Amino acid sequence: MKQSDSPQPSRWPLKFFRWFCHPDYREDIEGDLLERFERRLAEGGIRKAQWEFSKDVLRLFRLGLIRPFKPTPSLNYQSMFRNHFKIAWRTLIKQKLHSIINITGLAVGIASFLLIALYVYNELSYDRYHQHADNIYRVVENIRTDSELLSGATTSLPLGPTLARDYPEVLDFVRIRYNKRTISIGDDNHFLEDQCVWADSTIFQVFDFPLLEGDPKTALTKPETVVLTESTARKYFGEESPVGQSLEIQVQPYLITGLAADVPENSHFTFDLLFPIVSITSGRPDLAKDGWFIPGVYTYLLLAEGDNNTSKIKAAIPDFITRHTGEGRYGMQYTDFPLQPLASIYLANPRLFENGKRGNKSNLYILSAIAMLIMIIASFNYVNLAIARASRRIKEVGLRKIMGVERSLLIQQFLGESIIVSFLSMLSGLGIAVLTLPLFNSLLNTSLHLAIMNEWNVWVGLLVFSILLGVLSGAYPAFLISGFHPLRIFQQSPQSLRSQGWLRKILVTAQFAISMTLIAGTLLVFEQLDLLSNAKLGFVKEQMLKIDFNRDKAVKQHLESVK
Amino acid sequence: MSKHHLGEFEEIVMLNVAILHGKAYGIAIIDEMESRLNRKVSIGSLQTVLRRLEKKGYLESEFGEATKQRGGKRKRFFTVTNFGQQVLEEAKDQRLALWNAIPSIAFTNPSS
User: Which of B98, B85, B28, B30 is nearest to B53 (CA)?
Assistant: First the structure.
């Protein structure tokens, strides 16, 4: 019958009818429908005929005529499902070596990926634990002198207070200053503490540095007081509470007014002892008020919530500079006070006189790229091996098809099988990552932990990834082999079936190319580091000794005799 | 026989199938009912009844030849089985018996 010539009934009602109608009744009722449609078409317009057709279809939607919606009892499906597991397990066991190579290959890939991801995640997590992290900014300064441009990380003392006074958007400021102090226990024991910080008392309000003991409002308000971190306190006082006791610092007793929790690993600056900044400002009120161009403190601002506060402050800076600062020695002039979001400081390009440790953004990019490449290699390798294995099972597919297995069931079986295997690999990868984490930490001198695993989206990501990988590696057998004609499978030489090798060839080539790149890169870096540590520098490194004497006057005076 | 109770619509469908004698397929039955009884019947309601009657064994059906009409779909021709005929006759007898039992004075104004 030529279908295109004569007008047809509307497609969707017909599709709907074909879908719901009991297959036994489908043909003749559809015939009746069409006959009626043709008759109506002859009587009136196509519109009306189609409309009536749709109405007829709707009236056919009756309990007696619709197909049963559970074609087979559900028990059958269940046992089929169980059978898939059984078959998957048997194929794994049957080809032990192959399975082991396949699973461990992927597992090692996943483990390396996870470890690198942990590292990168940790690097990105710096300073984000502060409750106000999004509203805290570090002010830094750009200075122009007669001959150069300086972009320093430190600022002068009056910057913070003046900004806070001029702009209501600045809720609070914290200035911190670093120095070293010698702590004396008794007459003979002197300890050099190089993480001493002088800070405004607002440090406890702006940042999330909890005080375990002591009052955060008053702890850092009087001179000659000090707040210790937990580990520092343990060093000098053991387990007893240090608050209220005194500590001899540079031959002067200091009252301990608070006990702070240790600064988290992922902070861009850290401290062991906290001193009130008043002890600096009260000694030099002139500097505190007007000491521009004398950098020495790091200034952090807490801005009010709101999107445009930052840009408002930024826009006001030139005016601020002309109103307050003027010109310093050597023709120094401020050109800008840039604001750095707190979370960005760790990975930003370091400025002059940075505080604390800094990460390296390009390193992170490189590491992430390597992690992705490793993952790609592992996946390619896995998919490749899975495909190679699947082509051995063409005969099984042929037999199954002859026994009357539907194609959808075959697809289900193969996909299910490969998802099970990729899932196993994912689990063993996780296991390897957990087991090797301590080794990784000692190698990189980091203290990564699996806290990231508490986040549900990591698990969802892993799950989705393993399913994706399973589908990818199972796609070839599932969709291609299941489509083969069973007769062709059992022909003498199923050459035509095996010729679909292009995918594998591409994968293998890509895999080798990436491996080569990585190996070459590693060798290059190794050579470079080797050069760095072994190049001839003009002196014998092993015979040199560097001693930090903390500008001790006694050492300075008797330098010759020390030598 | 209350066991083989026939609904009114079922009875009419069966009678029309019998009238069409071998040419009773869906549309033909509907046409027949329309012309004889002036009764509009949808495909849906007719088909459910046909299938139900077939399941009960009152009707049987077989496919006809495929033609160029109807999108090439075959017709399904229904015929009344012996059992169906028996049931029909029983129904008729019951009706007649009931009619006969009506006392003559009950219907004062018989249609003429």
Answer: B85
Residues of B in contact with A25 (CB under 8 A): 47, 51
What pTM was computed for the model? 0.63
Q: Return all residues near A150 (Cβ < 8 A) that are at least 6 apart.
A: A142, A143, A144, A352
Helix (H) or strand (E) holding A336: strand A333-336
Q: What is the pLDDT of residues A11-69, one digit of tens each?
A: 888 888 888 888 888 888 888 888 888 888 888 788 888 888 888 888 888 877 777 76
Shortest CA distance from B72: residue in chain A: A1
| ipTM > 0.90 for the complex | no
Q: Helix, strand, or coil here: A139? A: strand
**Backbone phi and psi for residue A185, each to the nearest 5 degrees, phi listed first:** -115, 115
- Give chain B's domains with CATH numbers: 7-99 (1.10.10.10)
- To the nearest whole angstrom, how far is the Cα of B89 from the nearest Cα of chain A? 26
Among chain A residues, the shortest Cα distance to B76 is held by A28
Q: Which residue of B has its CA nearest to A28?
A: B75
CA–CA gap between residue A254 and residue A412 (Å, rounded): 74
Smallest Cα distance from B74 to chain A, Å: 6
Q: In which residue are the tokens 């009619």 written?
A: B99
Enumerate the H helices of chain B as residue ranges.
8-20, 26-37, 43-56, 82-101
